[in-house]
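ok here's PQ loop repeat protein:
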Amino acid sequence: MLVASILKVFFWFGDNYSLALLVQAVIMIGVQMVMLKVALDNRPAPGVKNSLEHVPFSSTSNTSGFTRPYDFWQWKSAKPYWMFLAYFLSALSFIQICLPPIAQSELYINCLGYIGLTVEATLPLPQILANHQSRSCKGFRLSVLAAWILGDLMKLSYFFCSQEIIPWAFRLCALFQCVCDLYLGVQFWMYTKPSIRAAGSLRESNGNWNVEEKDIRMT
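and the structure:
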């Protein structure tokens, strides 16, 4: 989300879309910076604990065997995270200020917009894959899902009904993200329904002990 918001800010210099969306991206950068600082300060130290090796910012349910190139965003110290963001911002700023032919080209501007918004739109995919692999939505709260879908609906209504300039990149990526969140809702219904049935049958079996009420009632 941090990278996506940075790309959206630089996308604004070429497309001059709605000012409200620019302000939202700038605020999101600040919020994500604070969250990254808190996460880095409070994460467990890398190493082996209780016979398990801890990898920073890794999923405990990752069984695909996929490893990120150069351990991207799983570095063991805090410095590489801030160095990456500094280099990333410096590179985009250098292109914007020192290379106007590139910064003003339609291809470069569209790449900034579509890459940034695609990153944001695909944020639900890791949760979808994790639910699919585990066949469970354990730990995923219904309130979070409801908030995501409500946010998608409000976002889409603004993108398609606003009189301000809204590039189609925002609309397409918002539609994709809404579809992903709705599919998360389908997963939640699919994977929680069997567990509810199992819990109900367990209660029935526990209650069917041929014990009359007078046997357990205190007199």
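+1. The CA atoms of residues 145 and 185 lie 7 Å apart.
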